[in-house]
């Protein structure tokens, strides 16, 4: 029997800001291969999304109903806070907290959401993010009252409230998917507002899917969620044909790459310090930091301070073909994350045969045997690992080839089978 899923997400390729949209895309394709029909709701669709595995519902095109028959939902009781500072996906606590405090100081009363038939979402992570999250939840109620489905699946904290509202409206079971927690984004300096939304979603869900056992332990211990309903399903990677193999490049030196958000969670400072140590012993190398984030300026200043500017390159945010080209240029890939719920980028690097170094504090370390693992804070160990892969071609070849074979077996189809079983169990027990 085919299962119909009402799925809520904040982004979907090609319009992505990080790994969340990529994971949603791979997972939905895997589920479609197992007779799962998916209605994927996103705030703002561009019209160029791949709908071969899903039907996209553009929340900006949905006419919101003020009153849903038979349901005691009063939208006028929903408040939002307009944030006066730009926010980024997986926002850092200092930026977010400052924005919230400024809003509180300058505006005593939060605005009520005004009723319009349709609301044009930006679908970004900008100045009115919390307003968009609240409106998205309201639209979710309308969609849930109009569509036919068997189960609800909500990705990341931005959509948890939407999932809960859809459950209240429809009476259908809710699965939430934890791709990251506030503790991953912010360390111990959590933003209470985001944490509360996350816990609210987890408490109201029938099942909580986590992308690693690392994340599962956080959900259980930090959010107080019953372990019986928290299930780990590791991510995979969606491989496009023709993205493996080396490519001729303009530089003769070896290339070591960091690709990810340049923010606390990803550990860019450890990459920079390790690069400095490596260059002392192996000068014929260039280091590339591909990405953007709140620590970009600090990282550039540190590179200049260490006098590495001629050996260190900042590319800015890369996506699509540019990401694949960067991997093909690379001799070593490094992910020194402080806290990484999973981490898809090492899988993409290993797919191209690039030997990879990952932190032990990452979920992907649970499934990879053929990558080098170091503690994120151990700069000496990280530098030694980079040096070894650069200096010993035989080691680099073995690690690269074994890793490539390993990740080829990490398929979204396998993750999709596990999630389908979760759907079936929840629907049966509901």
Describe the structure.
With 430 residues, the chain is an alpha/beta fold. It has helices at 19-32, 93-106, 129-146, 157-170, 182-186, 192-204, 213-223, 268-281, 296-305, 321-329, 345-351, 379-391, 393-407, 412-429; strands at 3-8, 36-42, 55-58, 151-155, 174-178, 207-210, 230-232, 254-259, 285-290, 312-316, 332-335, 356-359, 372-374. The protein has a seven-stranded parallel β-sheet with strand order 3-2-1-4-5-6-7, sandwiched between helices. Strands 10-9-8-11-12-13 form a six-stranded parallel β-sheet, with helices on both faces. Helix 11 (345-351) crosses helix 13 (393-407). The chain is elongated, with a radius of gyration of 22 Å. The model is unreliable at 69-93 and 107-115 (pLDDT under 50).
Strand order, sheet with most strands: 3-2-1-4-5-6-7
What's the oligomerization state?
single chain
CATH architecture of the largest domain: 3-Layer(aba) Sandwich
Q: Radius of gyration, rounded?
A: 22 Å
Overview features:
single chain; 430 residues; alpha/beta; Rossmann fold; 2 domains; seven-stranded parallel beta sheet; six-stranded parallel beta sheet
In short:
41% of the residues lie in helices and 14% in strands.
SSE topology:
Layout: E1 3-8, H1 19-32, E2 36-42, E3 55-58, H2 93-106, H3 129-146, E4 151-155, H4 157-170, E5 174-178, H5 182-186, H6 192-204, E6 207-210, H7 213-223, E7 230-232, E8 254-259, H8 268-281, E9 285-290, H9 296-305, E10 312-316, H10 321-329, E11 332-335, H11 345-351, E12 356-359, E13 372-374, H12 379-391, H13 393-407, H14 412-429
Helix pairs in contact: 1-14, 3-4, 4-6, 8-12, 11-13
